[in-house]
């Protein structure tokens, strides 16, 4: 009888200690996983801080340039003229790109394309001369 | 004699009862300390874990502001080019109509509004950047405090609380 009681008590003690060890191990694993997650996010944040700083500075610089542009446009007629010429030149480039696309799709002939591009180039040269003569910056 | 022994017994029983009470109080204090430490650990872990998402959103906002600024510049350039063409005078009836419609628009007011908008965007971007920089300085501090709290927690747990 005594032996049964003793083995029963020992079994309960063994079960209790195994269960405790298992709980401890589970807790350790949970802590380790959580620590790793924090570590990963910390490193990720360090990289993103650099990117955010760079992006922020770039944005502020661009916005200040835009503000200067608006102020100059409002106050300086010569600058306004320069902007108009430069924009027209950009539009001519866009037209040239469009013509190239049409040529690629065989919707216009090579001859038509060349003639159109030469017209655009002439117009561009007029604007270039104007821009240079006014020393647009 | 009996009375003396009884008094000593009662006194020692009282002392041991007081000691047990003290131990229970101490355990309760340590347990509340542990739960407070755990609450702080959770709070600081959340701050660090949510930081990449926050920064990503800040970067996206910077990009958005830059795109709006660029768009304002481009729209304004187109407007100036169109005005310049209309000043040179239109060549046909449709040209005249287009230029009349164009001059009827209060674009001067639009430009002023755009200027104010850009100014506001600069202030917003500067505030956001300042926020990024202060958080960049504080995050290592949060991590150090977190590590220290974890060590304290481990120590308290080893002590059996």
Task: Please tell me about this protein's structure.
The complex is a heterodimer of chains A (137) and B (161). Chain A is mostly helical. Helices cover 92% and strands 0% of the residues of chain A. In chain A, helix 1 (2-75) crosses helix 2. Chain A is elongated, with a radius of gyration of 38 Å. Chain B has 161 residues and is an all-alpha fold. In chain B, helix 1 (2-87) runs antiparallel to helix 3 (107-158). The A-B interface holds A 31, 34-35, 37-38, 41-42, 44-45, 48-49, 51-53, 55-60, 62-67, 69-71, 73-74, 80-81, 83-84, 86-88, 91 and B 45, 48-49, 51-52, 55-56, 58-59, 62-63, 65-66, 69-70, 72-73, 76-78, 80-81, 83-85, 111, 114-115, 118-119, 121-122, 125-126, 128-129, 132-133, 135-136, 139, 143, 146, 150.
Per-chain topology:
The complex is a heterodimer of chains A (about 140) and B (about 160).
Chain A: H1 2-75, H2 77-104, H3 110-133
Chain B: H1 2-87, H2 93-104, H3 107-158
Helix pairs in contact in B: 1-3
- CA radius of gyration of chain A is 38 Å
Largest sheet of chain B: none
Structural classification of chain B: mainly alpha
Helix percentage of chain B? over 70%
| Poorly predicted regions of chain B | none
* Large-scale geometry of chain A: elongated
Number of strands of chain A: 0
Low-pLDDT ranges of chain A: none
Structural class of chain A: mainly alpha
Rg of chain B is 36 Å
